[in-house]
Amino acid sequence: MQWTHWAESAEQNKKPIAEALNPYLSAASAVLEIGSGTGQHAVHFAELHPHLRWQPSEHPHNLNTLQQNLSLHGRSNIETAIALDARAPQWPALSADMIYSANTLHIMSWASVQQLFAHMGALLSPGQRVLLYGPFRFADRAFAVSNTAFDQYLQRADPLSGIRDIDALVELGQQTGLRLESDIEMPANNHILVWQGH
Fold first, then answer.
1. What is the pLDDT of residues 85-95, one digit of tens each?
2. Is the pTM of this model over 0.85?
3. 3-state SS string over the chain?
């Protein structure tokens, strides 16, 4: 069965991400995915972990794309996709013991990132985790040439977007009840940042 929308990057990274996140997803019961995009990660991870209740979400403007794909490829443990806007002052009542998001922080404004962290910190209980995948900037490491080019591309399209600085995120996490627990290096100069509620 064909996908109505397809992201090659999601196809390429879904297996290494799933492998890295296996111990976390195996221990969870309900995952909220923020910015589910085409739904390819939701379908793949829900298939690997049938015990999970997977809640996909998307910005209201992109929700229709996600819903079309999930109508073709959804599984019984994938909930109906919901609209979530990081900038909204309030989110609907949600139930999850883990949050996952891939390639989202760099395509939103810093103000939206700040509001997103506030939402995530409020949703999770102490000890529960947020898993964020994507490129990040580290003060003590050389910035990859490919990430430099990608960052410039992002800011040409939207000056408020861009690859986020890890130190700024750590400080933001401290303000919103999230502590950086670990950093998992991934292929193509990406990382998974594991945050724990406290």
1. 999 999 999 99
2. yes
3. CCCCCCCHHHHHHHHHHHHHHHHHHHHCCEEEEECCCCCHHHHHHHHHCCCCEEEEEECHHHHHHHHHHHHHHCCCCECCCEECCCCCCCCCCCCCCEEEEECCHHHCCHHHHHHHHHHHHHHCCCCCEEEEEECEECCCCCCCHHHHHHHHHHHHHCCCCCCEEHHHHHHHHHHHCEEEEEEEEECCCEEEEEEEEC
